[in-house]
Every structure is written in C-alpha cells, then in structure tokens.
Design goal:
Elements lengths: L3 H6 L31 H4 L3 H20 L11 H10 L13 H13 L19 H13 L10 H18 L7 E5 L2 H16 L3 H4 L10 E7 L4 H9 L7 E4 L9 H13 L2 E9 L11 H11 L2 E5 L24 E5 H4 L7 E5 L2 H5 L35 H11 L2 H23 L3 E3 L7 E6 L9 H15 L5 E5 L2 E7 L7 H21 L1
Parallel strand pairs: 2-3, 2-4, 4-5, 5-6
Antiparallel strand pairs: 1-7, 6-7, 8-9, 9-11, 10-11
Length: about 525
C-alpha cells in the first residue's frame, strides 16, 4: 500500500496544486503491530511505548532529511493548500482520545520537513540561520523530555551550571574581569538588545523604572540612544518599548564600508546634546544584518567612555568570530563594551533561539529589572539561588537553550566552531571574487564575514530599472525553489543578498546561482 504522505507531498517535495486532493485515502486509527497494548489511549499517550515507536521512526526520517544533499532552497506553498493538507492529517475523533497512528505522525513530520526554508540544503543562502549540528538536535530532543525551564537552578540544575561554564569559556575570548561579568540566555537577539538597553537606561535614570517619564521630566534633556544607520530594527523597537521613543534615536553616520564613522559620530553626538537630547547609550554592531559590517569597537569604546555612555554591542551575527584566531580582529576593542548580544543560533550552529547576553559589570546588568516576587525570588540567596537568572532577564519560563551549545563544546571543543566559521568566510570571499570577475554583476562591498550583497546589472539596463530588476530576480529565484536568497536596500536601491551559512555550500553552488540569476534576469527583461 502507498504511504498516505506520499500523495500529500509529492515527488518534488512540494504539496500538490490546490485542485489536488491531499490524500488518496483517509487515515484510520491504528496501532503499530509491534507495539504492546498499554490500556486506554489516554494512558498510552503518556507512556514510553508510543514514545519509543514514534521516536525511532521519526529518527529515520530526520536522518534521511539531513543526508539529502540536493539543492533545494525554498519551496513556497500556498498557505490555503498547506492548511488543507494539515487539516487532512488531523484525527476526526472528538469524543474520545484517538488511538496512536504511526503513519499519521510520519506524514506530519514529512510535511514539516518539506515546507519552509531547507536549511540543510546548499541552496539555502537567504537567512542568518542554517541546519544545526545534528548532535545539538539530539540534545534538544532530550531537553523536550526533561522539560526543565532554565531561569532557576532548582528547576534546571545542569543547564544553570552549563550556563556558568559557557559564560566563563566565552568570556575568555571577550576579555572581561572574570569576577565581575555575567551572562544570561534570552530567547533571541531582539530580547537581549532590549534587556541591555533597559540596564543602560536604569543606570542613567535610576528613577525611571518606578516613576516612568516623571523621573526625568524636570531635567529638560530628553533621554536618547545613538545607533548606526544600519542597526538592526530591534534596537529602534526597543527604544519605543523602554519609553525613550523612536524620535529620540540619534542615527550616527556611516563610512564607505557601512560602519559607524567615529569622527562623524562625535560631531553628531555633540549636535544631539545641543538639541536637548541626553544620549545615555551608544549601540554598535558586530556584523550588521544588511551587509555584515563591523563597527570600529575600539574607537567607539573610547568615545563612549569619554562621553559617559553605555556601549552596547549587537554582535548577534558576528560575535562568533571571536572564536577564530584569524577573524577575531573584527571585534578589536570588544572588552571596552558594557554589554554584548551574541546569537549562538547563527554562527555556532545550534537550534534557535540561543542568545547569550553578556554584561561587563554584573551589578549593572542586574539593574535591568527591579522587582520583588516572593514565589520565585529569594531575599536570602544561597549556594543554589546564586545561579538563578530570573531577576536578570524578562523571561520567567524559557527553554534550557544553553544545553545544545554546551554539549557541542564539551564533545567537540571550540575548534568545531572556529573552523566552520573560517570556512564560511573563505567561501564568501571567493563568492565576492566571482561577482567582481563577472561583467554583468556589481559587488557592493568587500565582505567582512559571510554576508555578501551584489546586483545584477546586464549591459543596457536603465538606471531607473535597477531597483525593480533585483526584486524581480529575487522573486523568480524564490519561485523556482532551487536557491533561496534575500534582498536588501543599499543606499536606497535593492540588492541581492546571500548569507553563506551552510557547510555544504561550495563555490560551484554559487556559480550555479549566478547562472540562474542571469537566466532570471533575461526573463525579467523579456517580460518588460
């Protein structure tokens, strides 16, 4: 008999057209032949037999998925078709607990794997995440069973110890005083940036947490934050959340490499003060989202110290370069920062989210949140509660996200990350050279890490068509599905953007992408 899910997904790994029925035949409730009976279904659902049967079958599916080396970037599916397919996989039973159906689960897993960005494929070049190291997925699997929320030691003892270990290991690359710094995990870089800005605000305006805007109402100067013009949108969003307001964001000029210009920054900050703005925090980037640019942290650190500013470094993408002896110079001066956001789910290849928020001064970091809650916070800390971090981050319940990272570090050591990062950066340099050598392409910057932006500019393309040309190419590449790339506006004009994150991607794959872009560009020109 044909597996039901084969009709659902199709030979190319995509859901059939909307006219197609998702399944040739409906599911029937069944029990695997080799599975022992466990009494009523509600009891079996919580028992080990169903778990083992489902896990073993799913493990085979996942191993085949990881082992698939075909070039498949993204196959977009009409959400209405996907919803119809997903609904067809649901039991129709509503009055009692349905029996376990291994085929149903297998079809759901296949559908999950075949939709969305194919992160394990060499054709996935569009976003700042990729397939995780497989061992990390095994640890995530164990974490789902253990189910230990990790803000408090009593609930997640090994994860809290692992946080302390990884904090010390990674701080060795940052260079802060081992007795003064602290690190906590957050669910994503946006939340880490928000938390760091809260700490900076509360240091500058101690009464803000309790009294809000009234804490500085009589001072005249308005609290403000200074950021690079290419800073991640989460920083501007955080300014609104913490009560600073987007209109109090001072955008610092960039140089030709799209980095904050320290000399121009000083002039801009002086002008902001003259306008009645009280800038309390300067946010620099170590790997901007758009181009992967690294701001000059050494000079900005000196400027921040001179002007009494908190220096926060958004290193969500690029902080991992600290692990490479060849690349860590990109973050020269990081030890002068007051806080650092570091996404391990980017270039440390663990499941998302896994963000590490570092503070140079643990007391200043603890100032982000000032609350009492006797049901979780102890007035008299002891050996165990000293490892709690609920008072230093917004989340009370969060996954033990440190575990996959710590296990990879414990099993393979730091060279696993350093070598992979260096390989990806070498590949990006090679891609840059290929773009420069092609007369119908334009490289927009020299990549500092693994992000490259460029444009397709065939001879005779009118200047006023360049913007739409890139967008149309990106849409055609995405619709074809072999490669997934993104786009970004650079100086107001769209550009094609690749993020080389996948360890399987080679220079030959990038050459194939350039050829596909040319073909797509010709199609766009004919359509015009």
């Amino acid at each position: 008999m044909v597996e039901p899910h084969a009709a659902a997904v199709g030979a190319a790994g995509r859901i059939p057209s909307q006219q197609s029925e998702p399944y040739a035949e409906p599911y029937t409730e069944s029990r695997d032949a080799d599975e022992p009976a466990q009494g009523p279904p509600e009891a079996a659902a919580f028992g080990p037999a169903h778990f083992r049967t489902a896990a073993e079958r799913t493990l085979g599916q996942l191993a085949r998925h990881i082992g698939d080396h075909s070039v498949r970037g993204l196959g977009l599916t009409d959400p209405r078709v996907l919803a119809k397919t997903a609904r067809s996989l649901m039991t129709r039973e509503r009055e009692r607990v349905a029996g376990f159906d291994g085929d149903r689960l297998a079809a759901i897993v296949d559908l999950y794997l075949e939709t969305g960005i194919q992160v394990h494929s060499p054709g996935a070049m569009g976003r700042q995440f990729t397939g995780s190291v497989p061992l990390a997925a095994v640890v995530e699997f164990a974490g789902s069973v253990a189910n230990q929320p990790s803000s408090f030691y009593e609930a997640a003892q090994l994860p809290k110890v692992a946080e302390q270990i990884m904090a010390a290991e990674l701080n060795a690359y940052i260079g802060w005083d081992p007795g003064r710094f602290c690190m906590t995990t957050t669910s994503g870089g946006s939340l880490a940036n928000l938390t760091a800005l809260l700490a900076a605000r509360n240091r500058a305006f101690p009464g803000f947490w309790a009294d809000g805007a009234a804490a500085f109402g009589g001072r005249g100067a308005r609290p403000a934050i200074a950021i690079g013009a290419d800073a991640h949108y989460s920083v501007a969003r955080a300014a609104g959340v913490i009560g600073v307001g987007e209109s109090q964001i001072v955008r610092l000029p960039l140089n030709a490499a799209k980095q904050i210009d320290p000399d121009a920054a000083r002039t801009t900050l002086d002008a902001a003060k003259a306008r009645g703005l009280d800038v309390f925090c300067l946010v620099a980037s170590a790997g901007t989202t758009a181009l992967g640019a690294f701001d000059p942290l050494d000079e900005l650190g000196d400027l921040a110290r001179e002007m009494g500013l908190w220096l926060h470094v958004d290193g969500a993408h690029g902080a991992s370069l600290l692990l490479s002896g060849r690349l860590r110079h990109r973050l020269r001066g990081i030890e002068k920062a007051d806080s650092l956001t570091w996404d391990a789910h980017k270039m440390m290849f663990v499941p998302a989210p896994c963000t590490l928020l570092f503070h140079r001064d643990k007391d200043a970091g603890a100032g982000a949140f000032r609350q009492q809650a006797s049901y979780v916070f102890d007035d008299e800390p002891d050996l165990y509660t000293a490892l709690d971090s609920g008072d230093r981050n917004l989340e009370c319940t969060k996954r033990p996200m440190i575990m996959p990272l710590w296990v990879l570090w414990a099993v393979y050591g730091p060279a696993l990350f350093a070598e992979r990062i260096e390989q990806l950066c070498r590949l990006t340099e090679r891609a840059y050279q290929l773009v420069r050598a092609a007369p119908d392409f334009e490289a927009l910057h020299h990549p500092e890490a693994n992000i490259l932006c460029f444009r397709h500019r065939p001879p005779g393309l009118p200047e006023h068509h360049v913007h739409r040309h890139q967008i149309a190419i990106r849409d055609r590449i995405k619709a074809r599905g072999d490669f997934f790339i993104s786009k970004v506006d650079v100086d107001g004009t769209a550009a094609l953007r690749v993020v080389l994150m996948n360890h399987r991607t080679t220079a030959d794959h990038f050459r194939t992408l350039l050829a596909e872009i040319r073909t797509a560009g010709q199609g766009v020109e004919r359509a015009c």
